Amino acid sequence: MTAEVRIIGGQWKRSKLPVADKPGLRPTPDRVRETLFNWLGQDLDGWRVLDAFAGSGALGFEAGSRGAAEVQMLERDPQLAKSLQQSKLRLKADNLRIDCTDALGWMSRCAPARFELVLLDPPFGADLFDPALQAAARVVVPDGLIYLEADREITPPEGLEAWRSAKAGTVHYGLFRRLG
Length: 180
Description:
By secondary structure, this protein is α/β, with parallel strands linked by helices. The protein has helices at 30-40, 58-65, 78-91, 103-109, 129-139; strands at 3-6, 16-19, 48-51, 70-74, 96-99, 115-120, 140-150, 160-168, 171-178. The chain has a single domain (3-178), classed as Vaccinia Virus protein VP39 (Rossmann fold), CATH 3.40.50. A 7-stranded mixed β-sheet has the order 5-4-3-6-7-9-8, with helices on both faces. A two-stranded antiparallel ribbon has the order 1-2. Helix 4 (103-109) runs parallel beside helix 5 (129-139).
């Protein structure tokens, strides 16, 4: 049996996304996503969003459901990327784009200051938190926001400031703002 995660707001509210049984895959829980989108505001109309370690797609689909003009989702695992593509087609999510690729490599090639919001939920065992934050700082616009989930508290690199943070169980999560 495949687990599922629900989209909690916007046009696809209550739609379910499949969650594959893969080591290290931890979809962002409903209450954490609810807190994040309360921080951001419920309406992301016109925002360009990057979901760099898409996994189940919970964060990226949530952003797309809430009006983001463009959501670029990156997922290295071909099976997960295929599942994201199937969910995109089922929901007719024309504002989403899914690429099966390495997130850090993709961000290093991306045009600078391309997104208003970057969502980072890298695999906890890979210790990608700091490199992912640095790569995201390059692709987010001045005063843009970066969301990060980690297994520990993260100190922002130069050029970013901690804006909001919280903890749910063993997961630390927060928003960082790129200094203008």
